[in-house]
Amino acid sequence: MLNPLTWEGFGEWAFIASAFAFLMLAAWRWERRRRDGGASGRADVMVYGVTAAWALVIAGMGPLTFVAQLFETLRSLGWLSLALVLFTRDGRHASVGPVRPVFASLVFVELLQPLLLLMNLRSGHVPAAQAMIFQISVLFRLLVATGALVLVHNLYAGAMAQQRTALRWTCAALAMIWGYDLNLYTIAYLAKSVPAELVALRGVAQLGAAALLVVGAVRGRSALRFSPSRAVAFQSLSLLVIGVYMIVMVGAAQSLAWMGGNASQLVQLGFVFVTSVLVVAIMPSGRVRGWLKVMVAKHFFQHRYDYRAEWLRFTRTIGRAGAHAPPLHERVVQAVADITDSSSGLLLVPAEGGELVLAARWQWPTAEVPAEAVPAGAVPFFEKRGFIVDLDELRAGVDLQGEKAVVPGWLVDEQAAWALVPLLHFDRLVGLVILGRPPVARKFDWEDFDLLRVVGMQLASYLAEHAGQSALLEASRFDEFNRRMAFVMHDIKNLASQLSLLSRNAEKHAENPEFRADMLITLRNSADKLNALLARLSRYGGSGSEKVEEVDVGEILRAVAERYNAPGLARVHLTHVSPCPVLANREGLEQVVLHLVQNALDASPDGMAVFLQLHADGLYCTIEVIDTGCGMSAEFIRNRLFKPFVSTKQGGFGIGAFEARELVKAMRGKLEVESREGLGSRFTVRLPLAAAKPLMDSIGGSTGSADKKVA
């Protein structure tokens, strides 16, 4: 019965396991040979079977018996024949000739072993003869092992480069078999006996050789390369850390136990408590996990990123759909941030004036982004170079391609900002992602830059497609709106013509002077109102007939405030009014201010005031409408606020903000918005001062027909 507590028992189990492994190898090789229908593989099956039989004999009868030694000779001859077959398989016919004498010599030496066994049987009663025969047998085994190792070296070193991959694992198995035999018989020759420990471990060496042959067979079967995934490597590293921790714990506990006494128990309890607290506090930390991932990527892999996993995650993030999915602009930021493990990010997109404005935030509510986040003059830098800006290097004074001149100061001052990633679509900047700093700080390398550029181009195509679809939808809605308005304008025009005709007839035929005068006033007022309505409805048709004159903006703001302020209840406050005469259409400007004030009141809670400010800013007059209401998200400002027919009010048409912006643009002005959810909004109207008209004309050329009608 096998005794696992002795070296002999351990060796028996090791040889049984190796015998099973070689039998499985022989069966698999035979099945593959039969399925492929070729003659190759016969030598492999033979040597695997002989090796399995030798291992079983040693496990059952012992390593030094007559039968075991005879099977060892058969095993050695089998491996030598396999080495010769590998030489011929490699196609090195010219090389086989010189090594054949070596093979013949080794076979001859190995065939002397049966003679020595027979002599040992006949001289078993003479101890001196047995000792001499043992030494000669071990010496012959040493010669065979040494010669076989030389052959294995020549087999691998002389192979062509494309053949080495197929031979590598088989040569490693042969080197393990003959190398262990060389060490075993060297010690046996010097010690004049075979150590039981080394005999037992010989079975483990045979098992290792079988494992190498399995790896070689799998690699020869397919082009798969052993390369664990990053998740497996990270988990393996985690298991290694846990294992080291457990070993340290056991060692520390054992060391403390050797101390003995009550103090030992107290120290053990304290040690367990402190280490448990440290594990609970440190292991769940995102910073620790991030550090481990960086270490794995840096030291275990040739490339930092697992591109398959990154692409799958990128696709899932961008393709997320459903009612609860974030908007596209926010998903764009998340897709870029996930690649670099950034904890937050912003997306800036071009506005109509060419400057970059905030479009979306992702997990970064505290970032203070101005209305004009990046000036229009910086856009060509990113379009021409596609340069990814490392803000840490910029703060350190590194200026590689002139990025210091284009990056705004607020980004440099924002220490949480880490990098700028441009999104280019056919050399046109459609967005700029600002990445927040990751939990584990690191420097960018070439692989980061390459991957971020590719992802940036892909995201730019998504944004461009989204913008094109939105433009098509807006155009179709405008087309429908224009068709409906055409009928309304036609009917109103007919009515205005009829009223004008009635007015002229009454002027000719009415007999009562008083009646005639009253009728004329009524009819003329009606006709004027209808014609004014027609002019307003056709404003966007390109007529450009709005009257532009010098307007006192302060007077308009006071009139608007008085309109909303009831006695005892002032909801609109003029906090600062400077003299600012501008060139504008009075009715249009009043309509813009009324719309902005009304929206501010609607967004503010009951009892909260709206503030109006007026001051001169260089060549422009600035009107600010400020509220402390619910505020708006960057996504709403970018994609919905100025989109016609999109309204958050019940029964609204959704053209108020769009019309206000168009009116301001028609007066050569600009409408800007700054808003924070939960804090309020600031609408800023910038109009050129009347005194600056000559300078504006010299800069921008003729202002068109509207300027010709200045009063």
From TrEMBL:
<feature type="transmembrane region" description="Helical">
    <location>
        <begin position="203"/>
        <end position="220"/>
    </location>
</feature>
<dbReference type="InterPro" id="IPR003018">
    <property type="entry name" value="GAF"/>
</dbReference>
<dbReference type="InterPro" id="IPR036890">
    <property type="entry name" value="HATPase_C_sf"/>
</dbReference>
<keyword id="KW-0472">Membrane</keyword>
<dbReference type="InterPro" id="IPR003594">
    <property type="entry name" value="HATPase_dom"/>
</dbReference>
<protein>
    <recommendedName>
        <fullName>histidine kinase</fullName>
        <ecNumber>2.7.13.3</ecNumber>
    </recommendedName>
</protein>
<dbReference type="Pfam" id="PF02518">
    <property type="entry name" value="HATPase_c"/>
</dbReference>
<feature type="transmembrane region" description="Helical">
    <location>
        <begin position="133"/>
        <end position="157"/>
    </location>
</feature>
<feature type="transmembrane region" description="Helical">
    <location>
        <begin position="265"/>
        <end position="283"/>
    </location>
</feature>
<keyword id="KW-1133">Transmembrane helix</keyword>
<dbReference type="Pfam" id="PF01590">
    <property type="entry name" value="GAF"/>
</dbReference>
<keyword id="KW-0812">Transmembrane</keyword>
<feature type="transmembrane region" description="Helical">
    <location>
        <begin position="42"/>
        <end position="60"/>
    </location>
</feature>
<feature type="transmembrane region" description="Helical">
    <location>
        <begin position="169"/>
        <end position="191"/>
    </location>
</feature>
<feature type="transmembrane region" description="Helical">
    <location>
        <begin position="232"/>
        <end position="253"/>
    </location>
</feature>
<dbReference type="InterPro" id="IPR029016">
    <property type="entry name" value="GAF-like_dom_sf"/>
</dbReference>
<dbReference type="InterPro" id="IPR005467">
    <property type="entry name" value="His_kinase_dom"/>
</dbReference>
<keyword id="KW-0418">Kinase</keyword>
<dbReference type="GO" id="GO:0004673">
    <property type="term" value="F:protein histidine kinase activity"/>
</dbReference>
<feature type="transmembrane region" description="Helical">
    <location>
        <begin position="12"/>
        <end position="30"/>
    </location>
</feature>
<dbReference type="InterPro" id="IPR014265">
    <property type="entry name" value="XrtA/PrsK"/>
</dbReference>
<keyword id="KW-0808">Transferase</keyword>
<dbReference type="InterPro" id="IPR004358">
    <property type="entry name" value="Sig_transdc_His_kin-like_C"/>
</dbReference>
<feature type="domain" description="Histidine kinase">
    <location>
        <begin position="487"/>
        <end position="691"/>
    </location>
</feature>
